[in-house]
Amino acid sequence: MSLRVAILISGGGSNMVTLVDSMTGDHPARPCLVLSNRPDAGGLDKARARGIEVAVVDHRPFGKDRAGFETELQAALEAARPDILCLAGFMRVLTAEFVTRWQGRMLNIHPSLLPKYKGLDTHARALAAGDAEAGCSVHLVTPELDDGPVLGQTEVSIAPDDTPESLAARVLVEEHRLYPAVLRQFCTQFRRV
């Protein structure tokens, strides 16, 4: 029996698409839900086009009530019964209580070579620091932002004329390679537990 994977998005869903498209054939998992905190997220239509169930829990009506938002988020997830959560451009910081509930079963892709540049504006920060390399990391999510154990990384050389946008575009290509590979390996190991 395949593991069930829910993918959380906030935008266009390019990483979600690469994950979904990789979960075919002998892959040990199948997508069971694509959930967004934004009703206008472009990734929702891409998921529907692939026959994947979608759900929306709009964070805006909750204002600063993160617990209320996460209660609705949890209810939507429980209805889909995932074994694993993949954050793929999900732009909400989750509380320690929510993360702990999914401890060891939630992955995230981050556009830096963690532990460098946690949070936002990673490409601009790498350029400002004069780094020779940037990249992306897939990590287990823990209550501390972008701080969980790294499961895989890919480096990208920084060119002298790079802008944050040009660097981001090259890193995104590597994200699309790295995340499906790490998810497959994680699912294979997860099944043995």
Characterization of this structure:
- It is a single chain.
- By secondary structure, this protein is of the alpha/beta class.
- It has one domain (3-192): Rossmann fold, CATH 3.40.50.170.
- It is 38% helix and 22% strand.
- It has six helices and seven strands; from the N terminus they run E-H-E-H-E-H-E-H-E-H-E-E-H.
- It has helices at residues 14-22, 42-49, 66-80, 96-101, 122-128, 164-192, and strands at 3-9, 29-36, 54-56, 84-87, 106-110, 133-140, 150-157.
- Strands 3-2-1-4-5-6-7 form a seven-stranded mixed beta sheet, with helices on both faces.
- Helix 1 (14-22) runs parallel beside helix 6 (164-192) and helix 5 packs across helix 6.
- The longest helix is centred in the C-terminal third of the chain and has 29 residues, at 164-192.
- The model has no long low-confidence stretch (mean pLDDT 96).
- Residues 4-183 form the Formyl transferase N-terminal domain.
- GO terms for molecular function: phosphoribosylglycinamide formyltransferase activity.
- It catalyses: N(1)-(5-phospho-beta-D-ribosyl)glycinamide + (6R)-10-formyltetrahydrofolate = N(2)-formyl-N(1)-(5-phospho-beta-D-ribosyl)glycinamide + (6S)-5,6,7,8-tetrahydrofolate + H(+).
- Pathway: Purine metabolism; IMP biosynthesis via de novo pathway; N(2)-formyl-N(1)-(5-phospho-D-ribosyl)glycinamide from N(1)-(5-phospho-D-ribosyl)glycinamide (10-formyl THF route): step 1/1.
- (6R)-10-formyltetrahydrofolate binds at residues 66, 108.
Question: What is this entry, summarized?
Answer:
It is an enzyme of class 2 (transferase). The chain is an alpha/beta fold and 193 residues long.
